[in-house]
Design a protein that fits this description.
By secondary structure, the chain is α+β, with helices and mostly antiparallel strands. It has a domain at 110-169 and 209-336. The protein is built from 8 helices and 11 strands. The protein has helices at 2-31, 51-64, 142-151, 171-179, 259-266, 283-288, 309-312, 316-336; strands at 109-120, 134-135, 138-139, 157-158, 183-188, 195-201, 212-222, 227-242, 248-253, 256-258, 295-299. Strands 1, 4, 7, 8, 9, 10 and 11 form a 7-stranded antiparallel β-sheet that branches. Strands 2-3 form a two-stranded antiparallel sheet. The radius of gyration is 41 Å and the shape is extended.
Length: 340
């Protein structure tokens, strides 16, 4: 009897413990809310592009893309001679380099004037600028030398927005200025009189149209050596602006080239010499020795308003006299320093 009572007591104790453990778990499960199940995200399929749509997109892209211009090739393609084209074998011009400038200290430059000159290639002394011969290094016209140097990235061309070499200009813009923009002309069938398609017409560049160049230079008197130096800073070919009837309105620079960067290129080309073809000088020597004729179009002498001569002198003859007067002032400054 005692044994049975003990077993009953143990059973009652075990039942109470199990109830205490199960009840809190049930209460916890009733108080917490079940988490909602997330719906699976379906990936959208890419839209199917038809062949007609691809063709339409490609056509639009071609129509919007701007047309690229290339610098015109002056003359034929460079064809090198396979034999020694001359009685004397000339190799020195290939190794020529310009002589370095003499350094001028800022304190020694006691006199400085800037001058802008125009070179007219129709004058007899300036005819080497128009020499049309073809040699192993290409066309010998000066405009061809400039364009080839820009195409080969030997020099950098600058925008004619100003003459201080502030903004480089792209070859596309130079080509557009040389040959103009392409014109679209409708092509008409002569038999039916109906329009067939549009034809793009581009103009050809004639290098003989460049007949003038502008040179920016600075005259400096060095008191250390007691000598007047002329340092060319830039060269710009000029494009003549004409009316529809052909009359000239004026000139505008196509681009500017920094002359110290151009000197190594000019040392590789020889200028034409009509008196002795065997004693030709390089273009770099021609500019340094000033073997050309130009007239002053602007200077810093007595010019507080920074105007060109054509803005305050309307008569062409009087402009030439004003140009000579400017040159004479610079010459007299050096001569007046000497006492005899």
């Amino acid at each position: 009897m005692k044994m049975w009572a003990k077993c009953l007591l143990v059973g009652l104790l075990l039942g109470s413990v199990t109830a205490e453990v199960i009840i809190p778990q049930v209460a916890t499960a009733q108080t917490t809310k079940p988490k909602p199940k997330r719906k699976p995200v379906r990936k959208k399929k890419p839209p199917v592009t038809t062949a007609a749509q691809v063709k339409a997109v490609d056509t639009t892209a071609v129509a919007v893309a701007p047309a690229k211009h290339e610098l015109p090739v002056i003359g034929d393609t460079i064809r090198r001679s396979l034999r020694n084209d001359g009685a004397v074998e000339r190799n020195l011009v290939k190794d020529r380099v310009p002589l370095p400038y003499q350094h001028i200290r800022e304190d020694d430059a006691v006199y400085r004037q800037r001058v802008w000159e125009e070179i007219d290639t129709r004058q007899k002394i300036n005819l080497p600028f128009r020499y049309k011969a073809q040699e192993d290094n290409g066309d010998q016209r000066f405009i061809a030398i400039l364009i080839n140097a820009i195409r080969d990235s030997s020099v950098t061309a600058f925008d004619p927005l100003d003459d201080r070499f502030t903004t480089p200009i792209t070859t596309d813009k130079i080509a557009e200025e040389l040959v103009g923009k392409a014109d679209t002309v409708p092509l008409i069938d002569p038999q039916t009189g109906l329009k067939r398609k549009d034809t793009v017409i581009t103009n050809d560049f004639n290098p003989d149209d460049i007949i003038k160049y502008q040179v920016k230079e600075e005259w400096v008197f060095d008191k250390q050596s007691s000598r007047m130096f002329c340092r060319i800073l830039g060269i710009a070919p000029l494009k003549i602006i004409r009316r529809e009837d052909g009359t000239e309105l004026g000139e505008t620079p196509l681009f500017w080239v920094y002359y110290p960067d151009l000197r190594p290129v000019l040392a590789k080309y020889e200028a034409y010499n009509g008196h002795n073809f065997g004693s030709r000088m390089t273009w770099e020597e021609l500019f340094e020795n000033r073997m050309f004729s130009g007239y002053v179009v602007k200077s810093t002498i007595d010019n507080p308003f920074d105007r060109s001569i054509s803005q305050y002198v309307k008569d062409p003859i009087l402009r030439l006299l004003e140009s000579d007067r400017t040159k004479e002032k610079i010459f007299n400054y050096e001569q007046d320093l000497w006492s005899y």
